[in-house]
Specification:
The complex is a heterodimer. Chain A is mainly alpha-helical. Helices cover 77% and strands 2% of the residues of chain A. The chains are: A mainly alpha, B mainly alpha.
Chain lengths: 208, 223
């Protein structure tokens, strides 16, 4: 929250895009957090396949769940940014948004798959394999979109390092850290809730 | 057992399983005729979906898009049938228990699916040339590479879907997001000025997803 306040009041407006540029401090950290969640989910999925311990299934599922929520937020903020900058809600030439659309479709299918399998080790393993496919799909799709499209998204990070003033970079990092913290907290709460649910179901079964 | 001998055993398992699928298809004739009819009728439908007022250059580009969409959907049609025999006869359980490597089941099925796809394309490409325009050798090469990728990923997903409640319904949802890079590579190879990059991209896709699918199949079919 503090990062958001700083983003609005402290950072100098971008010379080129003006006030609207400030959505950058929300949009990009949210997008990076979504990637982090997908990556974390895939790591837990790999651990599941490796060790065959079913507790990783719930962790992987929760991480993918968080990732999808942040992915939808990325699509929403990206659409708003596109509307302000270019006057259109959707532009196929914006790679990151197109990638997030593909990922959104992919991970929606992940949930469909999960709900159409009977709970058990088979569901856990199939979901884990699909989650692993997801992280491989991210770079492959990115390459595909790059090959397919031209380029109008503003480049901020280049090989020479970030092209931002010190204060801007600081706020960006702070905002990113805040988003990661938020995602981590939500992840823990969600995981706790789901474990509680499972435990409750088990207890009910024992009583009956 | 030496590694050459075990490799030979593995390959003979794979060929045997692929032959089993082809023989089943020869006897029942369920899938391939349906795929052939589907690909031709979708090309005819596409002719009416594209307005005839387009410039010839645009029409050329759009037509290749139609070819690739037709191929992807035809492949999907074949893939939904890929594990039907296994499921109905409870054959998959028996195969999993058989003393062969589980990935051999996957590879055998991939070979069979590639065979079906090649048959469908042997009809689809001449039909496309007849209805729309000629195709270059690069497009054919892209089709060959795409077949491998479609079969590798599709077979794994079909095995996943076969174990679920909504089988035929869920396979397109699982497959289409993963097929987007194939479509990009295929259309790029067909229409772009430097097709080598797109062929390379398709080969990369095949290699990456082939290896993961090969390694992951065991986890999908075992209980």
């Amino acid at each position: 929250m503090a990062a958001l306040a700083l983003a609005f009041y402290w950072v100098p407006s971008d010379a080129d895009q003006g006030f609207s540029q400030r959505i950058f401090y929300v949009h990009v950290p949210v997008a990076l957090t979504a990637y982090a969640c997908f990556g974390w989910g895939a790591w837990k999925a790999l651990r599941l396949l490796w060790t065959n311990e079913l507790r990783y299934d719930l962790e992987s599922y929760t991480a993918v769940h968080m990732g999808t929520i942040f992915g939808v937020l990325t699509l929403a903020t990206g659409a708003i940014w596109a509307r302000i900058s270019w006057g259109i809600w959707w532009s196929w030439s914006e790679r990151q948004l197109t990638l997030f659309l593909i990922l959104f479709l992919f991970y929606s299918a992940y949930f469909m798959l999960r709900y159409s399998l009977e709970p058990g080790p088979r569901q856990a393993r199939a979901s884990a394999v699909y989650a692993l496919f997801g992280v491989v799909l991210i770079p492959i799709s990115f390459l595909a979109i790059r090959l397919a499209e031209n380029f109008i998204h503003p480049v901020v990070f280049t090989e020479r390092g970030p092209q931002m003033a010190g204060s801007m970079f600081f706020v960006f990092c702070l905002s990113f850290a805040g988003m990661l913290g938020l995602a981590g907290a939500l992840y823990q709460i969600e995981l706790f809730g789901k474990r509680l649910d499972l435990r409750l179901q088990e207890l009910r079964r024992v009583r009956v | 057992m030496t590694s050459t001998a075990s490799l030979r055993l593995y390959l003979s398992d794979v060929l045997l399983l692929a032959r089993k699928d082809l023989k089943l298809e020869m006897r029942s004739r369920d899938t391939v005729p349906a795929m052939l009819l589907f690909v031709v009728s979708s090309l005819v439908v596409f002719h009416f979906a594209v307005p005839s007022t387009l410039s010839s250059e645009t029409e050329r580009t759009v037509a290749f898009g139609l070819l690739w969409i037709a191929i992807i959907f035809t492949a999907l049609l074949g893939l939904t049938r890929a594990f039907v025999a296994e499921r109905e006869q409870r054959l998959l359980d028996a195969l999993v228990m058989a003393p062969c490597d589980r990935s051999a089941i996957w590879l055998g099925k991939v070979l069979a699916v590639v065979g079906f796809l090649v048959l469908a394309e042997i009809i689809a490409v001449p039909a496309f040339v007849l209805f729309f325009q000629g195709v270059s050798a690069v497009t054919v090469a892209a089709l060959v590479l795409a077949n491998l990728g479609i079969a590798a990923v599709g077979t794994l997903l079909a095995a996943m879907a076969a174990g679920s409640r909504t089988r035929e319904l869920i396979l397109p949802l699982l497959f289409l997001p993963l097929a987007i890079p194939i479509v990009v590579g295929g259309i790029g190879a067909s229409v772009a000025d430097s097709p080598e990059r797109f062929l390379g991209f398709l080969a990369l896709y095949d290699a990456v997803f082939g290896i993961i699918s090969w390694a992951a199949f065991e986890y999908v079919v075992t209980e």
